[in-house]
Amino acid sequence: MSIKNRQARSGWGFLAPFLVLFVAFFILPILYAIYQSLFTVKRTGELGLGGQELSFSWFDNYTTALSDTAFVDSLWTVLIFALIQVPVMVLLALTLALLLESASARGVGFFRTAYFLPHGVPGVIASILWGFLYVPGISPLYNLFESVGLSVDFISPDTILLSIVNIVTWEFAGYNVLVLIAQLKAVNPNLFEAARVDGASPWRIIWHIKLPLARPAIVMATVFTIVGSLQLFAEPLVLRPVAASITYTYTPNLAAYNEAFFENNYQLAAAQAVVLAAVAMVLSFGFLRIFGRGDKQ
Amino acid sequence: MPSLSRRTALRLAAAALLPTSLAACGGGGSGRRQPGETIELTFWNWVPGVDKAVNLWNKQNPEVQIRLSNIPSGPSGGYAKMFAALKAGDPPDLAQVEYYQIPAFLMEQGLEDLTQHGFADHKDKFVDWQWDQGAFGDGVYAVPQASGPMAMYYRADLLEQWNLEPPATWAEFEETAAKIREHDAYICSFPPNDAAMFTSLCWQAGARWFGTSGGEWTVDMDNEPTRKVAEYWQRLIKKDLVLAQPMMANAWYKAVQDGKEVLWVGPQWGDALIKGNAPKTSGKWKVTGMPQWKEGEFASANWGGSSTALFKGGDFPAEALEFAIWLNTDPTAVDLLIEGGYGWPAAAGVFKGSKLDRDDEFFGGRYNDVFAEADKAVDTKWRWTPITLEINENLNAGFQAAFGSGGSFTDVVATAEKQAIAGMKAKGLPVASP
Q1: At a CB cut-off of 8 Å and minimum separation 6, what does B60 contact?
Q2: Which residues form the ABC transmembrane type-1 domain (chain A) (predicted)?
């Protein structure tokens, strides 16, 4: 009994540093955002400049957020973004990981590093770099495309979303490749050996052995990509000055950021953030429910 | 009364979460410096050249040291930082605040009323209308710094080569634009994502979008001058006579460098932008007045304009105010700011003999006389609201959508007016019905 107690105590002791920070910088801010989202500001005095007070208003801010077409459009934007981003990201990362892990792969160390390097570049810097490549008049890409007779515009309202998909893929594909490789490496090589002896083709090995065993990593990469897509922020923010097609409510995070720090409506911003969190939760847990079941095999 | 006790409980919870910010909201900053005591004031700013003026002050005033923090310019994050600092109860003593943003900080109870510290005695040191930009009710909340009277920069060499005159009216401007297209160049850009330029063009045409009357805000954006300007630019864009691209961004600088864009109806502080970004075009530019809607008139407008504001809650408002007045009126300080390209001085009568009052080869000689004239021709009744950034963003979103779908610019303005009124009401501000 006393040993068990001591074990429990040391367990909590090891957890404590994490828990303190987790509560202080994760749980409390979320609770505070939810709390804040239930208030609205009332202003008094001539021209409304006499002062302000907070009044409890139940879900008024949520009604405001969800009846604001710009905000609802921003949710659709990230959902469409996720719809494109998730398959592109997962298929690309999976293909690269399988190539690097195939028996005949050459220069594995070099390619693994090369794929991962962009992940070391912060999203803001990546967006600035790609911004230069996207802007007509500066980017050499336009001349390149024109020389083969193609006319493109990377920052038009029709293409800007794909241009952002490209940046995000460039940033994160290498990271997901590493995660997938780690999982593939954990597979007992005897399995491949046995399959080959039984006459399985490389495609069959991929389809029937590698993919099922890499499933947990694939599921994780997908969930991360879903959540990351919904939280899209730095890339459109940085591209906004050069790409006129990006509005200040382009993504939900951008809308909440502007609501909080330019329009000073922290309460509405909090409500928007909570709505986004709810959508992200439904989608990621929904995905896990549908596809995550095989994890425990 | 369960709801009442719940509310009380929530308030208490809020008070427990935010003790410092609530405490800081009450204080008005009444500290007094002891003789011989050395104090340090923080100053958030992004204007090039202000560091030199601050260094000069620090040398001359060892007991009142200004600590300058370079922050991003207001709309690119500087204001977000200030609002966050206000919310956290830890704002700087002084900051750069553009005229259009003063009401927004007033709405958050963020600015010190300078009349409490004797600022009213300094009224005659500043240009009247710029003083008024910081005056609300009985208070004055900002020390005027600079404005941006507008004129027309043009590539004299290219126009001459193509046998064209700088346009004196907006009708001529359209004709000239068509002729410039024959030389594979554009007359100028119209930015779909920078409502400030559009606002100033409407200002010149005689629009007065915002005002105050009887304790309420008034909004009138959907009016005849504004519709005229909106239709005009939409036509030019449709006929491919102007480039629809963001200005003061890389692609625009490139076009200006290459002579693909030959003219800019811009503010006085734009001279530093052209000089800094297209140094090889030196001597090829000239400056003349804005094109006019009616021949023979001389109406100008203002684009930009800044003040030095004191945030509430500072410990030494008297010293901060003394510095702010010195920074914006002392001839040496003003000259240092002029060198950085801060705009047109808000201090009365400093143009003569200042660094603006001289030849500049880049713009083919004396060009600031044009801006001195323009400064006098600005409609000084223009006012801003507490939600200018929101109104700008709504205009931008409207223009951006219209660019994509081919929608009409006049509809954008009409929608923007409705959004402005709704936005102000949503903030709890009293708005007069239009």
Answers
A1: none
A2: 75-287
| Contact yes or no for B251 and A135 at CB 8 A | yes
Strands (E), chain A: 39-44, 51-56
Distance CA B250, CA A136 (A): 9
CATH number for the domain including B47? 3.40.190.10
| Phi–psi pair at B372, nearest 5 degrees | -60, -40
B43 and B124 fall within a common domain = yes
pTM of the model: 0.83
Both B313 and B395 in one domain: the answer is no
> May I ask the CATH class of domain A68-292?
mainly alpha
**Residue B62 has which token pair?**
């060892």
Closest to B199 (Cα-Cα) out of B371, B399, B45: B399
Give A66-104 pLDDT, tens digit per residue: 999 889 999 999 999 999 999 999 999 999 999 998 878
pLDDT confidence tier of residue B2, bands split at 50, 70 and 90: very low
**Residues from chain A contacting residue B193 (CB–CB below 8 Å):** 240-241, 244
Contact B193 A136 (CB under 8 A): no
Quick check: helix, strand or coil at residue B249? coil
**B200 and B211 fall within a common domain:** yes
Q: What element of type H or E holds B308?
A: strand B302-310
Q: How many domains does chain B divide into?
A: 2
Candidate from A32, A135, A263 with C-beta closest to B387: A263
Measured between beta carbons, the chain B residues lying within 8 angstroms of A43 are: 107, 427-429
Contact A217, A179 (CB under 8 A): yes
Model confidence pLDDT, tens digit, residues A53-76: 889 999 999 999 999 988 999 999
DSSP at A23: I
Are B29 and B55 in contact, with CB atoms under 8 Å apart?
Answer: no
Indicate if B127 and B138 belong to the same structural domain.
yes
Contacts of B245 in chain A (CB under 8 A): 136, 244
Enumerate the domain spans of chain A: 68-292
Residue B11 has pLDDT above 50, yes or no: no
Contacts of B341 (CB under 8 A, 6+ apart): B48, B49, B269, B271, B272, B273, B276
As a whole number of angstroms, the distance between CA A18 and CA A24 comes to 10
A258 contacts B393? CB cut-off 8 A: yes
